[in-house]
Amino acid sequence: MLSCGKLILFVLGFTFFCFDGVAEMQTNTVVRRERLKPFMDGEWGYISENSGATLSRYDGQGGTVAIPSKLGGLPVKKINGGLNFNPSIRKIIIPPTVTSLGHGAFAGLDNLIEVLIPDSVTNISGATFAQCKKLPSVKLLS
Questions:
Q1: Of 96, 90, 98, 101, nearest to 126 (Cα)?
Q2: pLDDT per position as a tens digit, 51-86
Q3: I want to staple 118 with a disulfide (CB 3.0 to 4.6 A). Which of 21, 81, 96, 142 is the partner?
């Protein structure tokens, strides 16, 4: 099993790297990328990297979704895409452990009308709220 970090493993001329939940294996001539399978903690899927959890999946009900501050005992530091699989999400509450919202984190949530973002979030990537047609604005909490 691979765990994420800058340098994962060097064995027999193969080097493994992991960035944003994508494993990359390098040899002298070949680079192969593959998506890492997330760990599950209840209805939440996450990838362990950089001493924290990157949220990558949500299999729960819609309505109001409060993202947990910890998954698998690790603080949730980043949110990647994956919440877009539940179109009935209307409100998202992000915990103060999160510092980054990944590319397309909430993209395609057609019924999303409110997002509460703590001031701990210092990076919001492109297309984070793409195709959120009912979202008039986001609230930045201090």
A1: 101
A2: 999 998 888 888 999 999 999 999 999 999 777 668
A3: 96
